[in-house]
Design brief:
4 copies of one chain form a homotetramer.
Chain A: E1 3-8, H1 22-39, H2 44-51, E2 53-54, E3 57-64, E4 73-84, E5 87-96, E6 102-112, E7 114-115, H3 126-134
Antiparallel strand pairs in A: 1-4, 2-7, 3-6, 4-5, 5-6
Protein backbone atom coordinates (compact mmCIF):
# COMPACT_ATOMS: atom_id res chain seq x y z
CA UNK A 1 0.00 0.00 0.00
CA UNK A 2 1.54 3.34 -0.92
CA UNK A 3 1.84 5.92 1.84
CA UNK A 4 -0.79 8.69 2.16
CA UNK A 5 -0.07 12.00 3.87
CA UNK A 6 -3.02 14.21 4.90
CA UNK A 7 -2.69 17.98 4.84
CA UNK A 8 -4.95 21.04 4.81
CA UNK A 9 -4.23 23.93 2.44
CA UNK A 10 -3.23 27.06 4.39
CA UNK A 11 -3.24 30.74 3.44
CA UNK A 12 0.56 30.67 3.49
CA UNK A 13 0.49 28.09 0.67
CA UNK A 14 -1.50 30.37 -1.63
CA UNK A 15 -0.77 33.51 -3.61
CA UNK A 16 -2.72 36.53 -4.82
CA UNK A 17 -4.35 34.39 -7.54
CA UNK A 18 -6.30 32.83 -4.64
CA UNK A 19 -4.90 29.32 -5.02
CA UNK A 20 -1.82 27.33 -4.05
CA UNK A 21 1.33 28.79 -5.67
CA UNK A 22 2.74 26.26 -8.15
CA UNK A 23 6.08 25.83 -6.37
CA UNK A 24 4.25 25.03 -3.12
CA UNK A 25 2.75 21.87 -4.62
CA UNK A 26 6.33 20.58 -4.62
CA UNK A 27 6.88 21.71 -1.03
CA UNK A 28 3.73 19.80 -0.06
CA UNK A 29 5.11 16.71 -1.84
CA UNK A 30 8.35 17.04 0.11
CA UNK A 31 6.37 17.15 3.36
CA UNK A 32 4.72 13.88 2.37
CA UNK A 33 8.18 12.39 1.68
CA UNK A 34 9.44 13.52 5.10
CA UNK A 35 6.35 12.06 6.74
CA UNK A 36 6.65 8.77 4.84
CA UNK A 37 10.26 8.42 5.99
CA UNK A 38 9.34 9.33 9.58
CA UNK A 39 6.58 6.71 9.63
CA UNK A 40 9.17 4.20 8.38
CA UNK A 41 11.39 5.16 11.32
CA UNK A 42 13.74 7.23 9.18
CA UNK A 43 14.23 10.75 10.47
CA UNK A 44 15.86 12.68 7.59
CA UNK A 45 17.89 15.00 9.78
CA UNK A 46 19.45 12.44 12.13
CA UNK A 47 19.69 9.92 9.30
CA UNK A 48 21.77 12.28 7.17
CA UNK A 49 23.95 13.23 10.13
CA UNK A 50 24.51 9.59 11.09
CA UNK A 51 25.48 8.48 7.59
CA UNK A 52 27.34 11.66 6.53
CA UNK A 53 25.25 11.72 3.37
CA UNK A 54 22.72 14.04 1.82
CA UNK A 55 20.15 13.09 -0.78
CA UNK A 56 19.52 16.22 -2.85
CA UNK A 57 16.88 16.38 -5.54
CA UNK A 58 18.37 16.29 -9.03
CA UNK A 59 15.17 16.66 -11.06
CA UNK A 60 11.52 17.48 -10.50
CA UNK A 61 8.46 17.61 -12.68
CA UNK A 62 4.85 18.36 -11.96
CA UNK A 63 1.50 18.49 -13.75
CA UNK A 64 -0.99 20.86 -12.13
CA UNK A 65 -4.51 19.62 -12.82
CA UNK A 66 -6.75 21.59 -10.44
CA UNK A 67 -6.45 24.74 -8.36
CA UNK A 68 -6.34 24.29 -4.59
CA UNK A 69 -7.91 26.77 -2.17
CA UNK A 70 -7.34 27.58 1.52
CA UNK A 71 -9.12 24.99 3.64
CA UNK A 72 -9.00 22.26 0.98
CA UNK A 73 -8.16 18.87 2.48
CA UNK A 74 -5.41 17.01 0.63
CA UNK A 75 -4.25 13.42 0.48
CA UNK A 76 -0.73 13.03 -0.93
CA UNK A 77 0.32 9.59 -2.07
CA UNK A 78 4.08 8.87 -2.17
CA UNK A 79 5.53 5.95 -4.13
CA UNK A 80 9.30 5.38 -4.18
CA UNK A 81 11.07 3.48 -6.95
CA UNK A 82 14.71 2.46 -7.29
CA UNK A 83 16.70 3.98 -10.15
CA UNK A 84 20.36 3.04 -9.59
CA UNK A 85 22.49 2.04 -6.59
CA UNK A 86 22.87 5.72 -5.66
CA UNK A 87 19.55 7.21 -6.75
CA UNK A 88 15.80 6.78 -6.55
CA UNK A 89 12.61 8.43 -7.75
CA UNK A 90 9.45 9.43 -5.90
CA UNK A 91 6.06 9.66 -7.57
CA UNK A 92 3.43 11.84 -5.93
CA UNK A 93 -0.27 12.21 -6.46
CA UNK A 94 -2.03 15.08 -4.70
CA UNK A 95 -5.74 14.43 -4.27
CA UNK A 96 -8.29 16.94 -3.07
CA UNK A 97 -10.32 14.91 -0.61
CA UNK A 98 -14.00 14.68 -1.52
CA UNK A 99 -16.46 13.35 -1.98
CA UNK A 100 -15.69 12.98 -4.73
CA UNK A 101 -11.93 12.81 -4.37
CA UNK A 102 -10.23 14.53 -7.32
CA UNK A 103 -6.65 14.26 -8.55
CA UNK A 104 -5.22 17.80 -8.30
CA UNK A 105 -1.59 17.24 -9.30
CA UNK A 106 1.02 14.67 -10.17
CA UNK A 107 4.70 15.16 -9.43
CA UNK A 108 7.95 13.22 -9.60
CA UNK A 109 11.34 13.87 -8.05
CA UNK A 110 14.73 12.19 -8.51
CA UNK A 111 17.08 11.96 -5.55
CA UNK A 112 20.81 11.24 -5.62
CA UNK A 113 22.79 10.08 -2.60
CA UNK A 114 26.09 11.90 -2.14
CA UNK A 115 28.71 12.23 0.58
CA UNK A 116 27.99 15.37 2.61
CA UNK A 117 31.68 16.29 2.67
CA UNK A 118 32.86 15.55 -0.87
CA UNK A 119 29.53 15.62 -2.75
CA UNK A 120 30.57 12.41 -4.56
CA UNK A 121 27.91 9.83 -5.32
CA UNK A 122 27.51 7.05 -2.77
CA UNK A 123 25.25 3.97 -2.70
CA UNK A 124 22.07 4.51 -0.70
CA UNK A 125 22.52 3.45 2.94
CA UNK A 126 20.81 0.05 3.35
CA UNK A 127 17.92 1.32 5.46
CA UNK A 128 17.06 3.94 2.83
CA UNK A 129 17.46 1.41 0.01
CA UNK A 130 15.10 -0.91 1.88
CA UNK A 131 12.48 1.82 2.12
CA UNK A 132 12.82 2.58 -1.60
CA UNK A 133 12.61 -1.07 -2.57
CA UNK A 134 9.56 -1.65 -0.40
CA UNK A 135 8.02 0.93 -2.83
CA UNK B 1 -10.13 24.68 27.05
CA UNK B 2 -7.96 26.56 24.55
CA UNK B 3 -7.53 25.02 21.10
CA UNK B 4 -4.39 22.98 20.33
CA UNK B 5 -3.10 22.49 16.79
CA UNK B 6 -0.56 19.72 16.12
CA UNK B 7 2.11 20.14 13.48
CA UNK B 8 5.45 18.61 12.51
CA UNK B 9 8.39 20.86 11.57
CA UNK B 10 9.29 20.40 7.87
CA UNK B 11 12.48 21.18 5.95
CA UNK B 12 10.60 23.96 4.15
CA UNK B 13 10.07 25.71 7.52
CA UNK B 14 13.80 25.86 8.23
CA UNK B 15 16.72 27.86 6.88
CA UNK B 16 20.45 27.36 6.49
CA UNK B 17 20.95 27.89 10.23
CA UNK B 18 19.33 24.44 10.58
CA UNK B 19 16.25 25.59 12.48
CA UNK B 20 12.85 27.14 11.80
CA UNK B 21 13.22 30.60 10.22
CA UNK B 22 11.87 33.22 12.66
CA UNK B 23 9.11 34.47 10.34
CA UNK B 24 7.84 30.92 9.91
CA UNK B 25 6.92 30.68 13.60
CA UNK B 26 4.26 33.27 12.77
CA UNK B 27 3.13 31.32 9.70
CA UNK B 28 2.75 28.26 11.95
CA UNK B 29 0.66 30.35 14.37
CA UNK B 30 -1.57 31.45 11.49
CA UNK B 31 -2.10 27.80 10.53
CA UNK B 32 -3.27 27.13 14.08
CA UNK B 33 -5.68 30.09 13.81
CA UNK B 34 -7.07 28.76 10.51
CA UNK B 35 -7.48 25.32 12.05
CA UNK B 36 -9.14 26.69 15.19
CA UNK B 37 -11.66 28.57 13.04
CA UNK B 38 -12.27 25.52 10.84
CA UNK B 39 -12.93 23.34 13.88
CA UNK B 40 -15.41 25.99 15.04
CA UNK B 41 -17.16 25.70 11.67
CA UNK B 42 -15.72 28.97 10.37
CA UNK B 43 -13.96 28.63 7.02
CA UNK B 44 -11.95 31.83 6.61
CA UNK B 45 -12.24 31.98 2.84
CA UNK B 46 -15.99 31.45 2.48
CA UNK B 47 -16.62 33.43 5.66
CA UNK B 48 -14.83 36.48 4.29
CA UNK B 49 -16.59 36.14 0.94
CA UNK B 50 -20.02 35.76 2.58
CA UNK B 51 -19.61 38.78 4.84
CA UNK B 52 -17.65 41.00 2.41
CA UNK B 53 -15.10 41.59 5.16
CA UNK B 54 -11.44 40.85 5.68
CA UNK B 55 -9.68 40.65 9.03
CA UNK B 56 -6.07 41.68 8.39
CA UNK B 57 -3.42 41.53 11.06
CA UNK B 58 -2.51 44.97 12.38
CA UNK B 59 0.25 43.98 14.81
CA UNK B 60 2.31 40.95 15.68
CA UNK B 61 4.91 40.16 18.29
CA UNK B 62 6.84 37.03 19.12
CA UNK B 63 9.37 35.77 21.64
CA UNK B 64 11.54 32.92 20.32
CA UNK B 65 12.63 30.74 23.22
CA UNK B 66 13.98 27.56 21.62
CA UNK B 67 15.20 26.51 18.18
CA UNK B 68 13.01 24.03 16.30
CA UNK B 69 14.43 21.34 14.02
CA UNK B 70 13.01 19.30 11.11
CA UNK B 71 10.91 16.48 12.50
CA UNK B 72 10.11 18.24 15.79
CA UNK B 73 6.50 17.73 16.83
CA UNK B 74 4.69 20.92 17.81
CA UNK B 75 1.55 21.76 19.73
CA UNK B 76 0.28 25.27 19.12
CA UNK B 77 -2.23 26.69 21.59
CA UNK B 78 -4.49 29.50 20.33
CA UNK B 79 -6.39 31.77 22.71
CA UNK B 80 -8.59 34.59 21.32
CA UNK B 81 -9.51 37.69 23.31
CA UNK B 82 -11.83 40.55 22.43
CA UNK B 83 -10.29 44.01 22.09
CA UNK B 84 -12.99 46.31 20.65
CA UNK B 85 -16.16 45.82 18.61
CA UNK B 86 -14.06 45.64 15.43
CA UNK B 87 -10.87 43.96 16.63
CA UNK B 88 -9.51 41.04 18.61
CA UNK B 89 -6.21 39.55 19.70
CA UNK B 90 -4.83 36.01 19.50
CA UNK B 91 -2.26 34.62 21.90
CA UNK B 92 -0.19 31.67 20.76
CA UNK B 93 2.09 29.30 22.58
CA UNK B 94 4.20 26.94 20.50
CA UNK B 95 5.29 23.88 22.46
CA UNK B 96 7.78 21.27 21.32
CA UNK B 97 6.07 18.03 22.26
CA UNK B 98 8.08 15.94 24.71
CA UNK B 99 8.48 14.34 27.03
CA UNK B 100 9.15 16.75 28.47
CA UNK B 101 7.06 19.30 26.58
CA UNK B 102 8.95 22.60 26.26
CA UNK B 103 7.64 26.07 25.44
CA UNK B 104 9.45 27.10 22.23
CA UNK B 105 7.80 30.43 21.44
CA UNK B 106 5.05 32.85 22.40
CA UNK B 107 3.33 35.10 19.90
CA UNK B 108 0.44 37.53 19.74
CA UNK B 109 -1.43 39.02 16.82
CA UNK B 110 -4.06 41.78 16.60
CA UNK B 111 -6.77 41.52 13.95
CA UNK B 112 -9.02 44.31 12.70
CA UNK B 113 -12.28 43.70 10.82
CA UNK B 114 -12.71 45.91 7.75
CA UNK B 115 -15.02 46.04 4.75
CA UNK B 116 -13.34 44.29 1.82
CA UNK B 117 -14.44 47.01 -0.59
CA UNK B 118 -13.85 50.24 1.36
CA UNK B 119 -11.32 49.03 3.95
CA UNK B 120 -13.32 50.88 6.65
CA UNK B 121 -13.60 49.31 10.08
CA UNK B 122 -16.69 47.19 10.71
CA UNK B 123 -17.92 45.34 13.82
CA UNK B 124 -16.96 41.65 13.83
CA UNK B 125 -19.71 39.51 12.26
CA UNK B 126 -21.62 37.83 15.14
CA UNK B 127 -20.30 34.32 14.47
CA UNK B 128 -16.70 35.56 14.61
CA UNK B 129 -17.42 37.65 17.71
CA UNK B 130 -18.91 34.56 19.33
CA UNK B 131 -15.75 32.56 18.61
CA UNK B 132 -13.57 35.33 20.05
CA UNK B 133 -15.71 35.69 23.16
CA UNK B 134 -15.72 31.93 23.76
CA UNK B 135 -11.89 32.51 24.02
CA UNK C 1 18.49 39.06 -26.22
CA UNK C 2 16.76 36.99 -23.54
CA UNK C 3 15.85 38.73 -20.31
CA UNK C 4 18.14 38.39 -17.25
CA UNK C 5 16.88 38.84 -13.71
CA UNK C 6 19.44 39.39 -10.93
CA UNK C 7 18.76 38.08 -7.45
CA UNK C 8 20.70 37.29 -4.25
CA UNK C 9 20.02 34.04 -2.36
CA UNK C 10 18.47 34.79 1.05
CA UNK C 11 18.26 32.71 4.23
CA UNK C 12 14.51 32.40 3.67
CA UNK C 13 15.20 30.58 0.37
CA UNK C 14 17.26 27.89 2.07
CA UNK C 15 16.50 24.93 4.33
CA UNK C 16 18.30 23.00 7.04
CA UNK C 17 20.47 21.29 4.41
CA UNK C 18 22.16 24.70 4.11
CA UNK C 19 21.18 25.35 0.49
CA UNK C 20 18.19 26.60 -1.50
CA UNK C 21 15.17 24.31 -1.04
CA UNK C 22 14.36 22.66 -4.38
CA UNK C 23 10.87 24.16 -4.67
CA UNK C 24 12.30 27.65 -4.18
CA UNK C 25 14.29 27.40 -7.42
CA UNK C 26 10.88 27.47 -9.12
CA UNK C 27 9.75 30.43 -7.01
CA UNK C 28 12.91 32.27 -8.09
CA UNK C 29 12.08 31.44 -11.73
CA UNK C 30 8.59 32.88 -11.25
CA UNK C 31 10.10 36.10 -9.88
CA UNK C 32 12.17 36.36 -13.04
CA UNK C 33 8.99 35.87 -15.13
CA UNK C 34 7.18 38.60 -13.16
CA UNK C 35 10.15 40.92 -13.62
CA UNK C 36 10.42 40.17 -17.35
CA UNK C 37 6.74 41.02 -17.80
CA UNK C 38 7.07 44.19 -15.71
CA UNK C 39 10.04 45.35 -17.79
CA UNK C 40 7.90 44.74 -20.89
CA UNK C 41 5.22 46.98 -19.37
CA UNK C 42 2.97 44.08 -18.40
CA UNK C 43 1.98 44.10 -14.75
CA UNK C 44 0.58 40.60 -14.06
CA UNK C 45 -1.96 41.71 -11.46
CA UNK C 46 -3.56 44.60 -13.36
CA UNK C 47 -3.18 42.71 -16.64
CA UNK C 48 -5.15 39.74 -15.35
CA UNK C 49 -7.81 42.01 -13.84
CA UNK C 50 -8.13 44.04 -17.04
CA UNK C 51 -8.51 41.01 -19.31
CA UNK C 52 -10.49 38.80 -16.89
CA UNK C 53 -8.01 36.01 -17.53
CA UNK C 54 -5.54 34.06 -15.48
CA UNK C 55 -2.56 32.18 -16.84
CA UNK C 56 -1.95 29.28 -14.44
CA UNK C 57 1.01 26.96 -14.77
CA UNK C 58 0.01 23.56 -16.13
CA UNK C 59 3.40 21.85 -15.96
CA UNK C 60 6.85 22.45 -14.53
CA UNK C 61 10.14 20.64 -14.69
CA UNK C 62 13.55 21.43 -13.29
CA UNK C 63 17.07 20.02 -13.27
CA UNK C 64 19.09 21.01 -10.19
CA UNK C 65 22.78 21.11 -11.10
CA UNK C 66 24.47 22.93 -8.22
CA UNK C 67 23.58 23.83 -4.64
CA UNK C 68 23.02 27.53 -3.92
CA UNK C 69 24.00 29.17 -0.62
CA UNK C 70 22.88 32.31 1.21
CA UNK C 71 24.59 35.32 -0.34
CA UNK C 72 25.08 33.69 -3.74
CA UNK C 73 24.39 36.11 -6.58
CA UNK C 74 22.11 34.70 -9.29
CA UNK C 75 21.32 35.60 -12.88
CA UNK C 76 18.08 34.05 -14.13
CA UNK C 77 17.53 34.00 -17.88
CA UNK C 78 13.90 33.78 -19.08
CA UNK C 79 13.02 32.74 -22.63
CA UNK C 80 9.35 32.50 -23.68
CA UNK C 81 8.17 30.35 -26.57
CA UNK C 82 4.71 30.02 -28.12
CA UNK C 83 2.99 26.63 -27.85
CA UNK C 84 -0.60 27.12 -29.05
CA UNK C 85 -3.00 30.04 -29.34
CA UNK C 86 -3.87 29.68 -25.65
CA UNK C 87 -0.59 28.51 -24.13
CA UNK C 88 3.14 29.20 -23.98
CA UNK C 89 6.28 27.85 -22.35
CA UNK C 90 9.05 29.57 -20.43
CA UNK C 91 12.59 28.25 -20.26
CA UNK C 92 14.75 29.34 -17.35
CA UNK C 93 18.44 29.07 -16.68
CA UNK C 94 19.66 29.98 -13.20
CA UNK C 95 23.33 30.95 -13.17
CA UNK C 96 25.44 31.52 -10.10
CA UNK C 97 27.32 34.69 -10.98
CA UNK C 98 31.10 34.24 -10.99
CA UNK C 99 33.71 34.49 -12.04
CA UNK C 100 33.36 31.96 -13.35
CA UNK C 101 29.61 31.98 -13.91
CA UNK C 102 28.16 28.48 -13.42
CA UNK C 103 24.83 27.06 -14.53
CA UNK C 104 23.04 26.01 -11.32
CA UNK C 105 19.65 24.90 -12.65
CA UNK C 106 17.43 24.67 -15.69
CA UNK C 107 13.65 24.85 -15.49
CA UNK C 108 10.65 25.02 -17.80
CA UNK C 109 7.05 25.95 -17.16
CA UNK C 110 3.94 25.71 -19.34
CA UNK C 111 1.23 28.35 -18.97
CA UNK C 112 -2.37 28.16 -20.16
CA UNK C 113 -4.62 31.18 -20.60
CA UNK C 114 -8.10 30.70 -19.18
CA UNK C 115 -11.09 32.88 -18.39
CA UNK C 116 -10.98 33.86 -14.71
CA UNK C 117 -14.70 33.25 -14.31
CA UNK C 118 -15.32 30.05 -16.29
CA UNK C 119 -11.78 28.58 -16.35
CA UNK C 120 -12.25 27.82 -20.06
CA UNK C 121 -9.29 28.19 -22.37
CA UNK C 122 -8.95 31.54 -24.15
CA UNK C 123 -6.43 32.81 -26.71
CA UNK C 124 -3.62 34.85 -25.15
CA UNK C 125 -4.47 38.56 -25.08
CA UNK C 126 -2.51 40.23 -27.92
CA UNK C 127 -0.06 42.08 -25.68
CA UNK C 128 0.89 38.84 -23.93
CA UNK C 129 1.11 36.96 -27.23
CA UNK C 130 3.41 39.70 -28.51
CA UNK C 131 5.71 39.30 -25.51
CA UNK C 132 5.80 35.53 -25.99
CA UNK C 133 6.50 35.81 -29.70
CA UNK C 134 9.28 38.33 -29.16
CA UNK C 135 10.88 35.39 -27.28
CA UNK D 1 22.49 57.52 6.73
CA UNK D 2 20.49 54.38 7.43
CA UNK D 3 20.67 51.59 4.87
CA UNK D 4 17.87 51.21 2.28
CA UNK D 5 17.11 47.92 0.56
CA UNK D 6 14.97 47.97 -2.60
CA UNK D 7 12.65 45.08 -3.37
CA UNK D 8 9.64 44.32 -5.56
CA UNK D 9 6.66 42.42 -4.12
CA UNK D 10 6.31 39.01 -5.82
CA UNK D 11 3.35 36.64 -6.11
CA UNK D 12 5.17 34.22 -3.79
CA UNK D 13 5.08 36.88 -1.03
CA UNK D 14 1.28 37.14 -1.16
CA UNK D 15 -1.62 34.95 -0.10
CA UNK D 16 -5.19 34.38 -1.19
CA UNK D 17 -6.23 37.69 0.41
CA UNK D 18 -4.36 39.28 -2.52
CA UNK D 19 -1.69 41.00 -0.44
CA UNK D 20 1.61 40.18 1.27
CA UNK D 21 1.12 37.55 4.01
CA UNK D 22 1.89 39.13 7.39
CA UNK D 23 4.80 36.81 8.22
CA UNK D 24 6.45 37.68 4.90
CA UNK D 25 6.88 41.32 5.95
CA UNK D 26 9.37 39.94 8.48
CA UNK D 27 11.08 37.80 5.85
CA UNK D 28 11.44 40.94 3.72
CA UNK D 29 12.98 42.75 6.72
CA UNK D 30 15.46 39.89 7.15
CA UNK D 31 16.47 40.22 3.50
CA UNK D 32 17.19 43.89 4.12
CA UNK D 33 19.34 42.92 7.13
CA UNK D 34 21.27 40.37 5.06
CA UNK D 35 21.82 42.97 2.34
CA UNK D 36 22.90 45.65 4.82
CA UNK D 37 25.49 43.26 6.26
CA UNK D 38 26.67 42.24 2.79
CA UNK D 39 27.12 45.88 1.76
CA UNK D 40 29.16 46.35 4.96
CA UNK D 41 31.36 43.43 3.86
CA UNK D 42 29.83 41.01 6.35
CA UNK D 43 28.56 37.81 4.74
CA UNK D 44 26.31 36.19 7.37
CA UNK D 45 27.09 32.61 6.37
CA UNK D 46 30.89 32.82 6.26
CA UNK D 47 30.89 35.22 9.19
CA UNK D 48 29.03 32.77 11.40
CA UNK D 49 31.23 29.89 10.28
CA UNK D 50 34.42 31.88 10.89
CA UNK D 51 33.44 33.01 14.39
CA UNK D 52 31.60 29.82 15.46
CA UNK D 53 28.66 31.97 16.51
CA UNK D 54 25.07 32.34 15.49
CA UNK D 55 22.89 35.39 16.10
CA UNK D 56 19.32 34.11 16.41
CA UNK D 57 16.36 36.42 16.74
CA UNK D 58 14.96 36.47 20.27
CA UNK D 59 12.01 38.79 19.71
CA UNK D 60 10.15 40.40 16.85
CA UNK D 61 7.32 42.86 16.59
CA UNK D 62 5.61 44.47 13.64
CA UNK D 63 2.89 47.01 12.90
CA UNK D 64 1.21 46.46 9.52
CA UNK D 65 -0.05 49.81 8.21
CA UNK D 66 -0.88 49.20 4.54
CA UNK D 67 -1.50 46.18 2.34
CA UNK D 68 1.16 45.43 -0.29
CA UNK D 69 0.32 43.99 -3.72
CA UNK D 70 2.30 42.05 -6.35
CA UNK D 71 4.45 44.48 -8.31
CA UNK D 72 4.63 47.08 -5.52
CA UNK D 73 8.11 48.58 -5.19
CA UNK D 74 9.45 48.65 -1.64
CA UNK D 75 12.20 50.51 0.16
CA UNK D 76 13.20 48.90 3.45
CA UNK D 77 15.21 51.01 5.88
CA UNK D 78 17.35 49.14 8.43
CA UNK D 79 18.69 50.82 11.57
CA UNK D 80 20.77 48.80 14.07
CA UNK D 81 21.10 49.79 17.72
CA UNK D 82 23.25 48.27 20.48
CA UNK D 83 21.43 46.66 23.41
CA UNK D 84 24.07 44.83 25.48
CA UNK D 85 27.51 43.37 24.82
CA UNK D 86 25.89 40.24 23.38
CA UNK D 87 22.74 41.60 21.75
CA UNK D 88 21.41 44.27 19.43
CA UNK D 89 18.14 45.45 17.91
CA UNK D 90 17.18 46.27 14.35
CA UNK D 91 14.44 48.73 13.45
CA UNK D 92 12.84 48.41 10.04
CA UNK D 93 10.56 50.68 8.08
CA UNK D 94 9.00 49.28 4.91
CA UNK D 95 7.95 52.00 2.50
CA UNK D 96 5.90 51.53 -0.64
CA UNK D 97 7.78 53.64 -3.17
CA UNK D 98 5.65 56.42 -4.68
CA UNK D 99 5.11 59.08 -5.49
CA UNK D 100 4.02 59.59 -2.87
CA UNK D 101 6.09 57.19 -0.77
CA UNK D 102 3.95 55.65 1.99
CA UNK D 103 5.02 53.87 5.17
CA UNK D 104 3.56 50.35 4.92
CA UNK D 105 4.98 48.69 8.03
CA UNK D 106 7.31 49.09 10.97
CA UNK D 107 9.15 46.17 12.53
CA UNK D 108 11.79 45.53 15.15
CA UNK D 109 13.89 42.46 15.90
CA UNK D 110 16.24 41.61 18.77
CA UNK D 111 19.29 39.46 18.08
CA UNK D 112 21.43 37.61 20.61
CA UNK D 113 24.94 36.34 19.88
CA UNK D 114 25.57 32.79 21.07
CA UNK D 115 28.22 30.14 20.56
CA UNK D 116 27.12 27.80 17.77
CA UNK D 117 28.25 24.75 19.74
CA UNK D 118 27.11 25.48 23.29
CA UNK D 119 24.38 28.09 22.63
CA UNK D 120 25.82 30.19 25.47
CA UNK D 121 25.80 33.96 25.11
CA UNK D 122 28.95 35.54 23.72
CA UNK D 123 29.94 39.17 23.11
CA UNK D 124 29.35 40.29 19.52
CA UNK D 125 32.47 39.77 17.39
CA UNK D 126 34.12 43.20 16.95
CA UNK D 127 33.26 43.58 13.27
CA UNK D 128 29.57 42.96 14.00
CA UNK D 129 29.66 45.27 17.03
CA UNK D 130 31.21 47.94 14.82
CA UNK D 131 28.38 47.62 12.29
CA UNK D 132 25.78 47.85 15.05
CA UNK D 133 27.43 50.87 16.63
CA UNK D 134 27.71 52.67 13.29
CA UNK D 135 23.88 52.44 13.45
Amino acid sequence: MPFSHFRTVRFADTDAAGVVFFANYLAICHEAYEEALAVAGLDLKSFFAAHAVVVPIARSEAAYLRPLHPGDKLRVVVTPAALTADSFALSFEIFRVGPPEKLAARARTEHVCIAAATRQRLPLPPVLAAWVNAG
